[in-house]
């Protein structure tokens, strides 16, 4: 099986470049304050927006999820655990007033960046 890097994937780097060019500033690989789990890939603390770029393999993307044949049971348990943890992190953050965006690493960075930008800007100005 190919080595899947969980940090600084191409999608994530492209996303960071686009958002930075559009004047947005953020923290990288930072936990939202007061949370023990769920290091966000991009964090906008004042707007309370947390962005996760999820690897297709580790987070079981519906388009590219693959189940390794060797040690199948072990992998299945591990990947299910990842998926459960993702949901728990989402719930914990939204209870604390954060908006969570999850982006698959296979997604095109431009529309993903537009989505993030829209949400971050909407959290800055009252929408009326
Ligand atoms: Zn995928």
Name the features:
single chain, 128 residues, alpha+beta, 3 helices, 4 strands, 41% helix, binds zinc ion
Descriptive account of the structure:
The structure is a single chain. The model has no long low-confidence stretch (mean pLDDT 89). The protein has 128 residues and is α+β, with helices and mostly antiparallel strands. α1 crosses α3 (109-124). A 4-stranded mixed β-sheet has the order 1-2-3-4, with helices on both faces. The chain has helices at 10-21, 72-95, 109-124, and strands at residues 27-30, 40-44, 49-54, 99-104. It has 3 helices and 4 strands, in the order αβββαβα. β2 (40-44) and β3 (49-54) form a beta hairpin. The structure holds zinc ion. The site of zinc ion has 6 residues, from loops.
> What sort of overall outline do the alpha carbons produce when their principal axes are compared?
globular
Q: Strand arrangement, largest sheet?
A: 1-2-3-4
Low-confidence stretches: none
Query: What are the distinct ligands in this entry?
Result: zinc ion
Measured distance between first and last alpha carbons? 51 Å
Q: Helical percent range?
A: 40-55%
Can you count the beta strands?
A: 4
Q: Which whole number gives the mean pLDDT? A: 89
Broad structural category: alpha+beta
Output the helix-strand order.
HEEEHEH
The main pleated sheet reads as:
4 strands, mixed
Continuous helix count:
3
Task: Please state the CA-atom Rg, rounded to the nearest Å.
Answer: 15 Å
Task: Indicate the proportion of strand residues.
Answer: 15-25%
